[in-house]
Write a structure and sequence with these properties.
The protein has about 450 residues and is of the alpha+beta class. The chain contains eight helices and 29 strands. The N and C termini lie far apart (about 45 Å).
Amino acid sequence: MYPNAFHTRLKTASTKIGNSQFGSIAVWCMRSLLAIALIFFASVSATQAQTAEFGDIRGAVIDKKLEKPLVSHPVTLTVHKTDTVETQETTTDEKGNYRFADLLLDPSVHYTVSTVHDDTDYTEKDLVLSTWVPNIEINFDVGAFTDDTAQILVKSYTFIIGPPPPDHPPDGAVTVAEAIGLENLSPLAFRTEHGSERVGVHLTLPNGVEGFQPHLSAALTMNANTNQAVLRTPLPSGESQLGYNYIFHVERDKLDLSRRLNFNTMRFYFFVPEGIGFVPRAKFFGAPKREQIHGTVYLIYESSEHKTFAAGETVDLALNVNMRAAGGALPGQTSDLGQLILIAVAAALTGGFFVAALFKLRAASNTTESDTEDTSTPPDAGWLRKLNSDDREHVRVARLEFITHLDDKYEKQEISERVYKRLRREQTERLTTLLEDQKRGNNA
């Protein structure tokens, strides 16, 4: 319900390093996942033929402190057109509900819905209505926060190592991108004190950070005095993602990214392009997985699933320079480090963990019950069984292509975060159903 500071896909124009990679690589596992459903396109055509030209944005404003709706509370709609910005205002009814009707289904028009309560702004921005999604529900839970740090769980902390910007002097610098998947376990938004400010979260950075750059989030900044990455808006209930990159230096034959943890943390990942010879020194990192993705080989180090990290702990995240690990590139592999940048970041940021690698990682690690148990019937299970193997393959490719299309639309800010997440989650779930069906067919 707060400014869309929680989706942290890398934005091509916001960084000087690996610009083409940030915008074009939305997933790192395209070898086994390529893009989305023929049946979907058919349904889209049918939907477009049947859908009206106007939609609406509606929702409710609930005072979570009192657990009751706010009556006659003002809500503002801002309409961002190509050349103009218009505003509308309404008030909630006796049940706390509001509605803005007769809104254009135009992908070039973006909507922002906002309200204010107790001097705190609540905003949902970059909403897009279309024939796919003509109605959007935006609910605002206002007035109550939790400051219990035990309610915040860092599910994944991902580091991706790459070369410095082209104009940076050759002084042993690298670029480090961090992608953090958090979960607020409380039903209330999280807010804490940081110096004299009330902020969402603050995360300790390693000493020596230069050129801090958030990923698509003006609300995420660096406090140089405290050496913290600070999210200045409350952290909503549920899963969120944060991301940023910075320049860091190798000193005394190591790249030391160690830091004190502010929250309980489950897992760390390092993505290291093969050939640059960085190896985590901590023993809780096992042997790397070696993946060739788009002609580039990555060594992926993952902390042990049996090792968790408590808030307040200082964790060893140093990478030793190991020249013996600098060889081994595959025949024909490019040596241009500019092509070795950060494939995992976009995937890590789209779902709190590696959405793009979801199927491969689950198959390799035989994940937890929470990842695999689902008592509901997948929406595509019935008609998929009626298709032959060739038709299922066409569906797989089409679904994957549409996921890529969604990623591109969101990257260009042509679709809202809420709509993007909803469509991507739906298509990812359907793709999972398809892949499981294909696997059963192959094993039969």
